[in-house]
Structure formats: structure tokens, C-alpha cells
Amino acid sequence: MKKIMSFAALPLLALSPAFATVPPTPPDPAAALRDAALHGDDLAWDITEGLTTEVGQRLAGTEAEARARDWAVRRLTELGFSNVHIEPFDMPVWVRGAEHAEIIAPFPQSLVVTALGNSGATPAEGIEARVVGFNSVEELEAAPDEIVRGRIVFINHAMAPTQDGSGYGVFGAPRRQGPTVASRKGAVAIVVRSVGTDHHRNPHTGVQTFGDGARPIPAGALSVPDAEQLQRILDRGREVRMRLTLTPRFTGTHPSGNVVADLPGSDPSAGMIIVGGHLDSWDLGTGAIDDASGVAIVTAAAHRIMQAGQPRRTIRIVWFGAEEQGGLGGRALFEAHHGRDHVVAVGESDFGADHVWRVQHNLAPQNEALGARIRALLMPLGIVPGAGRASAGEDLGPWARAGVAAIDLDQDGTRYFDYHHSPDDTLDKIDPAQLRQNVAAWTAWLAVLANAPEEIGGVPPVGGGE
Amino acid sequence: MKKIMSFAALPLLALSPAFATVPPTPPDPAAALRDAALHGDDLAWDITEGLTTEVGQRLAGTEAEARARDWAVRRLTELGFSNVHIEPFDMPVWVRGAEHAEIIAPFPQSLVVTALGNSGATPAEGIEARVVGFNSVEELEAAPDEIVRGRIVFINHAMAPTQDGSGYGVFGAPRRQGPTVASRKGAVAIVVRSVGTDHHRNPHTGVQTFGDGARPIPAGALSVPDAEQLQRILDRGREVRMRLTLTPRFTGTHPSGNVVADLPGSDPSAGMIIVGGHLDSWDLGTGAIDDASGVAIVTAAAHRIMQAGQPRRTIRIVWFGAEEQGGLGGRALFEAHHGRDHVVAVGESDFGADHVWRVQHNLAPQNEALGARIRALLMPLGIVPGAGRASAGEDLGPWARAGVAAIDLDQDGTRYFDYHHSPDDTLDKIDPAQLRQNVAAWTAWLAVLANAPEEIGGVPPVGGGE
């Protein structure tokens, strides 16, 4: 709620009759629903506040995620949705242990570190080794094994904020591939600069998987200021020794699950729309932007459609489990329902709660009129049409790749990676005004597609789908 | 180096001849020194970067502070100052232990906590008790003892940023007096909302002292988001139980010390000027803004005076020890030197490295021409004259109160309490351009007072001095 632009004035200006220099077209009936959300939605805030306060962190496969599922079932039932239930699945569960990093020489001092998902463990007393630094995974790959063997690898980089979040792809490589490459080259451990755009002593965790038979090694992320500090120390050219303690462990196979709720449509033959976000979070913060706000936004929008009267198409809401471990809930849903349920459109909210700035959709050519209606409804919210193909997200991406129409409402990601996967992902990072703009945008497209009299077609699958 | 205004353009504009609508007065000879610092000083950055990188945190009385003293002696000697030496003193040393807070009921979750200075300790396994919340020390004072006894007290508050830092006085009360009041009323522990203006999961420590014979109890600060979370949980009206683990301890009496260096003046009878900041820091961050930048600013300014030729008056630089524990180094210096050395002016830098926005001085009436010169030299740096009496700071305040002239250059404190006493007090919070503006301002007044041909008089002591 700090340092945030206001969206209160924007739609009023854009919708003002004074700007109508061409004969006005009759207002889209979805516009009133959109504007009611923009000016009055409290539900998305209530869900975000409630889930983050009454459950807090909810790491996949833990009892906290189970409490979150119970919370979700209760809330979705209270809201009047139908068929509210949990679809469970099992998963291997990794939990954090002790975490500490210390420069032993030449300048003794503590550094803030956190283990990456699936990190191997050090002994309880830690390990001590010389640090060897690289600027990228490519540089590490190119290094002779002998300068890596027996050492702690450090990969620095400099991710800058981008509105569309595209920095996360390239700058996420040290976290995703670094541990595997370092392990294969004989490193005893790896620490990477957090994949974050802030300058706070809060490290950013995230999943990584040891591939190609690489032996798991301890793998951590330093906070950005600590990574900069280590780089300055390395730059002085002396031998740098670090003691690293990371004692995470796998606790075995435990249940996770997706929470599913329906707003039943009047015409089952018209197909259903699935919207979702994920219920699980990393264990460092309370997962306000990742992704309590996502489940809140899609639920608040569907609830507005419900209150406006029964839609033609069923809207299915899914609060996915275990997204952070690689979209396990999304895969479980797809495997259980693809080919059985007639799904005609999907949409996922999993990029925080800042304002939607862009819409991308991959509606079939015969549905272009629906696309045009959606774009027109979103424009007064300041949302531009994008040229790309919609892909949904980690959880609903399988449907989009399989040829189901997808609508992506892209949130502004400029500050998303200041908080993402860090202890700083907490409720105070949510701006209620921007959250309402999200609900308004989601309400608009759901109102169009849920009630469209025409059929909603499929699109060509990506690479044959999943 | 992020999100910071630039000062590069400001002095150029203010000094531009195009703005001279009255006949120009001859330029003050100190103006060239000032401008050279503004545009070219690297020394303050080098000292700040070096101390925070090569020593890091330096808690008073620990071996880290001793390493910092050695670093300081080496650096001040290299710079060409004379009489570089350590003036040691002993102090009781308190060090941090394990720290963890957890809500047990009704909504189990971890909170981020850190111990306040001189906090008592819980057993290693922590204590568990019901939480009782208050909005202020006054509210706690007014509460019946029976609702406090056996409980963990929580004090919430809402410090907002101020440019002059005046919020720290009133909003610091929960930290300073809260533990004593809670202890006297029978609380088993206290946690306060961090005295900070940020919204990050970094708690702010700081000193507190159990007074009036109050038994030490565990006393911690929650990060601001965690305090807000606890308040939301309390607001739901159910019994809130917390497990708190804080295991700090006193390690006995150990040496601290002040590092002293002189730029000898040509006229010992003219009296000396003492400038300083503090060398010690809290143990959570690397003390970049509190107070590596302070010692760096005063040292860089004195070095510029040295390079311009021997001044009339000696400038003594003091890098104080153990400021954070209550100005122990400042008291030691005053006790050792007051009444012996002829000190005519003091100035202290201990409020970060953001730009100086205001000057206050308490020069004697017969020195008003010097005051006018200083104010005129500072105006092109955007510095306004303040109406208050200069008080120096924690370390040089005893001299100001005793009637020595003092010059306060007040830094902009708007974001100071985002970082102060927290893990986030690191080098990346220092803006080199604003740091140079500080050095320029200090160089200006030192050039005036160190070389003034007139005598610099004393002022009436405050309450009889110390």
C-alpha cells in the first residue's frame, strides 16, 4: 500500500462522454459489471487478506497447505459456489532446514542465504571451501572443471525489472541450471545471486531440479546486497573462503491437492471455462502476490458473474496445489480432466496483483468478434492488446498448449521480482486499487465468454499439446 | 544507488551567473573547495565501501569492532593525518543469540523477530504465552497489571517518515521504555513493532535499558510486516498464543575505543575543531548509513582541508566506538579531554548519507559573520538555515551542551528509518552523488571555521553542561 500509483482516475477519464467524438455505440452489457468491480470490489482483498493472515505460508505438501485447502473449501462454499471439493495428489516434500553463510577469509562476516528448492544438504556444522565466482551459467559451463572441483560456486548476475517479467527467463538460469552444472563439474555447493530486483537482505528461493544424473549439492540464494558484497570481496583478488550451512531434507511423499469449485452454467453443451491461480506458496513469505491474490482475483470475478445471474457456460475455479514445485497441481488437473470435460477457455492469474497492462488471447479466428469485445472492454482500464499468443501459466498452460482458447491478462511486473519467492511477499505489497482493476478486467472477459451465444472454438495445439 | 534523486544539476543551476540579478560579491575562497568536493570527491565513497566490505558489521566491544579500529588506524595514517591513535575504554558486551517467534494459535505461522539491545533471554526452547497488544507505552502503562502478568506484551505503532527524523523520538518509546514497563507489570516478554518506516521483513534492533530495577525480560522487535500481521491476528478477537525464542547474552567486559586523528593547525592557541561519526555498528547490517558514511564524510572533508594547505586551527577527527550502546565512546572522549583541550567547535555526522537539507549552528553572537558565511556557502547546495539550536549528536553532544559552538548539517531522513538498525543497512543504500553533497557541505564549514582569523567563542551551556 506504499509507493503505488492510483488507478482511481483512469477509467473515469477514459469513459467520460466528453471524449466521445464519434457517435457512441451502445454500451456493452459487461461494462457495468466491470465498473462495479473496479469501484466496489472488496472480495479479492478479503480473500487475499484472509488466506495470508489465517493460514500464512503454505508450502506444498505440508500441513500448512492442507490447512489452506480447508480454508479454501470453507470460503468457496460460503460464497455459494457448487461442487466444492479437493482433488488430491501425492508429491515428494522438501522442507527447509538451518541456513547460514559466512565469509571466513579474507574479511570474516555473515551473509544472508536461503536454500533453493530441492537443494542438497550440508552436514549440520556446514562445509568450508574456497569460493569461485562466475557471471553466468555459460561462464560456469565454459570453465575448466579443475577450478570448480571442491569449491563453492557463486554465480552473480544483474536482473533488472521489466514490465512483462521477461527478465525472469534469462536471469533465472543461474537458479534453475546452475546447481546441476556446478554439481557435474565437482563443486561442493553453489550460491547464486537471488533472482530478484530489490536491494533488501531478503533472499529469493525457487525451485531447481538436479538433472542429467547430477548429484544433489547444497544450493542457495544470497540476497542481492549479500551477492554484491561477495562480488566486491572477490574483486579484491584474494582467496575467499566460505562456510555454508544448509540442512534441508525430503520428508517423503505427502498429499497435496487442487481445490475445485463451480459456477454451473445453464447450457452444459456450451463447454466450461477454467480459471485459476495457486493456493500453495513458498515458505518464506505469506504468498500474498504469489499467489493468494491470483486465486482471489479469479474467484472475485467469477463471484460477480454469479451475482449477475446464471451464465450460459460453467465457470470452474481451481486453486491449484504445488505450483511452486513445478506445476504439479496443474498437471494433475489436466491428466484427470483433459478429454473428459469440454473445456473451451482457460485463464490463470499468477503474476501478482499490480494492474493488468496487457491482454493477449488466442481465440479461434471465428471468435474474433468476441476478442474485439474483450479488447474494447479492457481498454478503459488502460489495458493494451498484445501481439503474442496467450499461454496461460504454469498450471493451465497444458490446456492452452493442447489447443484450448486462452486469455492472458498480464499484470505489471515492474516490482514483482522485488518480492517474489522472498520473505517480503506479504499483504502490505498488495494495492487494493490495483487489485480491483484486476477483478474488473477478469469480470469483463468472463462476462463475455461465459455468456457468448456463439460456440467457442479451439486453436491449433502447440507442439501437439502436452 | 536506486530510486534516488540526483543532485548533479542543483548547484550548477544555483551558481549560474544568469541568476545573478544583483552585483556579484567576490566568491568566498571556500566555494572552490566546496565545489571540488561536490563534483569530484571519491574518498568518502572509498571509506564507506572499504569499511563495510572489508570489515562488515562491527558490534561494539567485539573482535569485529577491534578489526574496524585497526582498519581505521591504517586508513587514517595512509591519508596523512597525524597523531593517529586509539583511545580505549571498557564496556559490558551484549551479543545476539537464536531468535524465533511463532504464532501457535489461532493461526500457526512464523514471525520475523530480532532481540533489542540488552534484551533478556528465554530458555533455549523458548517460552510460550498469550499475547496482549497495546498501541503505545502509555496504553501499556495504563493497563491493569493482571492483563499483562504472565503474558507476552506487543506494542504496535505507526511511525511515518519525516525529513528531520523527529518521528524517532516519539515512536522510539515502545523500544526504549516498553521493555521496562512490561517487565515491571509482570510480562514474561515483550515484542514491539520495529521502529522503522519500511515494509520489509527486516526487523530493526536498537538499544534499550531496563530501568528502575526492572528485571530483564526477553525483548524483541518484529519486522513491520510481521507486526501488521500480528495486529491483524489480534484484531480477530481470539486468544493469540506465541512461542518466542531469544537467547542473547552478556559476554563480560571487553575493550572498545575511539580512533583519533589530527590535522594539526598552525596556531595551537586558536583552539581545535572536533568532527566525528561512529565506527561501531549494529550486528545485523554492515552499518553503511549508520555510520560508515558519517566517519567517511567528516574524514573526506578534513582531508580536503589538509590538501588545501595547513589550516589555522587543528581539526581532530574521531571515529567513535560503542555509540549504539548509548554513546559510550562520546562520553569517554569528553571525560578524557574536556577541560584539557581547547575545543572551539564540534560537528557530528550520524544520520546517513542522503543530502544535507538544513544547517543549524549555535555560534556565539560575536561570530555571526562566520555563520553568515557558512549559510551563504551552503545555500548553493540546496541547504536551508534552520531556526533551532545545534546539538551535535550522541557522541559530540556533551561538548555542545557544555557550551562549545556546534554546527549541525541535517541530512534528509525521509528514508533513513527504512534501513536504520536493520539488516538492510548496507552499501547499496548509499547514493554517491548525495554522499558528495555531504562532503561539499562539510568542507565548506570546516574551511570557514578552521581558517577564521577571529576567535571562535563559546555559547551558554545547556542545563549547565554535562
UniProtKB/TrEMBL annotation, chains A, B:
Signal peptide: 1-20
UniProt keyword terms in alphabetical order: Carboxypeptidase, Endoplasmic reticulum, Glycoprotein, Golgi apparatus, Hydrolase, Lysosome, Metal-binding, Metalloprotease, Protease, Secreted, Signal, Zinc, Zymogen
Subcellular location: Endoplasmic reticulum; Golgi apparatus; Lysosome; Secreted
GO MF annotation list: carboxypeptidase activity; metal ion binding; metallodipeptidase activity
Name the UniProt record assigns to this protein: Carboxypeptidase Q
Gene3D superfamilies the record matches: 3.50.30.30, Zn peptidases (3.40.630.10)
Any one GO CC term of the record: lysosome
GO BP term, example: proteolysis
Subunit structure: Homodimer. The monomeric form is inactive while the homodimer is active.
Domain Peptidase M28: 258-443
